[in-house]
Amino acid sequence: MANSLWIACKLTFQQELLLVYRHLAEMLNPLFFFSMIICLFPLAITPDPHVLQLLAPGILWIAALLSVLLTLERLFRTDLQDGSLEQLLLSPQPLAPLVLAKLLAHWLMSAVPLILLAPLLGVTLHLAGPAIGVLMLSLLLGTPTLILLGAIGKALTFQLRNSSLLVTLLVLPLYIPLLIFGAGSVILASQGLDATAELAWLGVLLLLALPLAPMAIAAALRVGIV
């Protein structure tokens, strides 16, 4: 049983990677969006390094949050169109682990490039060295939770056309603690203070979301497809 579940999760992971690769342009759009926000912000506010350094944590985390929301647009849409979603629901394997494997592939292809790009954009906002490391760690802990929570909203609305605004309204309240702890950790690090507590809270939220969110997504998909 465990071996067959592992094989099913592996195949689901590989299939999602292939789907993302086939729609690579859609996954690059959030990266461009993330970069444009960061690059245009100094032009709209001020090029003063001290002001930008003060505002940088909030700017970077808000831009990352909005970019992750953009990546959710195609989640479950292609699966519904090609019939693979029905195959997942009819699979003898538990649906929650398959959903988790799918979301892991989605995170690797959408959020990891964003995390790798964040230090370069942080430098343009005059973040100091220690704050750059905390920024990457906070995004590493926070972006999986953003995707897991966003996928719940997407699973509740995947049958609707143009559901992006509704998904945003559903999940934005859930994103607020992540935004507070994520940006707060970078603010503390930029001031030379210890950000361990904020990063620990991000880790706690991730540990809670990892088992619970896939089950909620699986339930929402089963209700939506009936």
Q: What's this, in brief?
A:
With about 230 residues, the protein is mainly α.
How do the helices and strands line up, and which of them pair or pack?
Blueprint: H1 2-22, H2 24-44, H3 49-71, H4 77-82, H5 84-90, H6 95-124, H7 129-157, H8 164-190, H9 196-225
Helix pairs in contact: 1-2, 1-6, 2-3, 2-6, 3-6, 3-7, 3-8, 6-7, 6-9, 7-8, 7-9, 8-9
Strand content: under 5%
Number of helices: 9
Based on helices, strands and strand pairing, what is the structural class? mainly alpha
Uncertain residue segments: none
The tally of strands reads 0
List the secondary-structure elements in sequence, H or E.
Answer: HHHHHHHHH
* End-to-end gap: 27 Å
Q: What is the total number of structural domains?
A: 1
The radius of gyration is 18 Å
Shape: elongated
Query: Which range best describes the helical content: under 10%, 10-25%, 25-40%, 40-55%, 55-70% or over 70%?
Result: over 70%
Largest sheet: none
Residue-averaged pLDDT: 86
What does this structure look like?
The protein is mainly α and 226 residues long. The chain has one domain (2-225). The chain contains nine helices and no strands. It has helices at residues 2-22, 24-44, 49-71, 77-82, 84-90, 95-124, 129-157, 164-190, 196-225. It is elongated. The mean pLDDT is 86.
